[in-house]
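assembly run, all chains below
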Amino acid sequence: MSAARVFVETNFLFAAFRLPSKRDRNALALRARFEAGDCQPYVPYLCFQEAWNLIGKSLPRNRCDDLVDFLRAAASAGTAAWDYNEVKKFLDAAAAEVGRTKAVYRRELEGFAAVAGDGVLHGTKDVFDFLESLDLDDDALKYNDRLILSSVLRKARELKAAGASPLYFVSTDKSDLQPTPHRPKMSRYYDEAGLAFVPNFELPDASAASA
Amino acid sequence: MGQADMTVKTWADMTVYDKDFPEPRLVVEVTSAVSSPPEEDMVVKMMTRLMWGSRCHYGLVFTPASTFVLRDTFETLGPDSIHVTDVLPTDKVLGRVGRLGANGSSVRDLELLAHKWLVRLATRYEAALPDDPEVTNAFFPGLVGAVVDGRVVPEERDG
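ok done. output:
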């Protein structure tokens, strides 16, 4: 069996490249496998743009202001037994993590795009033609999600035709993209592409991915 | 979700995500029973693993009889800081949105009721939580604050 081909989308990039202390451990483990060449990532380019925006918006603006106020008030009132300067150092470090992340997250995402290489999926005419023809069980899916799904399904079909296996689509908080018995049309697309949906950034069989 | 399925299950029945970001704030599982001690139960172990992996600090396991509150207490640097911190009667927790049948309800009925309660908890926690010091102590302010305005996303069941 060859290395797994793993499709990811915006929520993976967000989870793996956001503020370091908040990063999803499963996403980090998967990112490490991508970077080690253990499995090949595929990412619609649109997802990088969404992740840039989301990570930027998610950085705390006033991470420690309330706590610094509390620290000073408690120390001034003499009710605190802790070392003011030590606690202040801790709060300064937490605040500095935000600035550091702001400075590097775009570069880190660009680095991951380089890791993905040809796995960055651009919005070509074929993708938009596929999107036009996409016939799903309901029309509630947002346009960007339809575009992401089209990019993924189209590339998965291509990989399947070339004999690649296994193919996974790893996503969280997007149950709208999950094929279920209640979504027979979507499920058929996944079957035709040889694609398995995986929630929670955990590949179902680690050995299958690395064998 | 039955115990037998836990060997393959790697996600929860329902997740409450942050309103703006794909960040899990609370994972929720509905099951028929939890064995004793709860920390050794398969469902609780699965939930602990999920919480640690996704850096989610709160979890709930509903059974028709009891609701188990899981919380990352940050006592240690590892996943062993996630504990069942409270066990409450499910009727008491969900009482403001509905009642389970007197003769016992199916897991599916409980899941529907729990979903309704979670949506209310995320939008108007005062209307979801009963006026009860035991419940208030378990949920407020940490868990309530984590899910405020959150998106409740149920996992699609097969079949």
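Strands of chain A lie at 5-7, 40-44, 120-121, 167-171, 195-199.

Residues 142 and 176 of chain A are 9 Å apart (CA to CA).

not gonna interpret more than that til we talk
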